[in-house]
Design a protein that fits this description.
Blueprint lengths: L1 H11 L7 E7 L2 E7 L5 H5 L4 H15 L4 E6 L1
Parallel strand pairs: 2-3
Antiparallel strand pairs: 1-2
Length: 75
């Protein structure tokens, strides 16, 4: 899941070298923290949070195959 979020985020931002993704696994629950440059925050969140929702939707769809609950936080 970490790699999926990283690939999506790097494709969206102007500074892909500043994208970092941290993943914490606790049983069937996974927490992913996405860190981007402050100037790229709007590109990752999108208008009314549409891009952030889309990222979460794609990750949720990918995680159902492994029967995991994934939370994506954009920091």
């Amino acid at each position: 899941m970490k790699d999926l979020v990283e690939v999506i985020a790097k494709a969206l931002v102007d500074n892909p070298e500043e994208v970092t993704v941290n993943e914490t696994v606790e049983g069937k629950s996974v927490k992913i923290e996405l860190h981007v440059a402050p100037s790229d925050m709007g590109k990752v969140i999108g208008k009314q949070g549409r891009i952030a929702k889309a990222i979460r939707c794609v990750v949720k769809a990918a995680s159902t195959k492994d029967d995991l609950h994934v939370d994506v936080d954009i920091i």
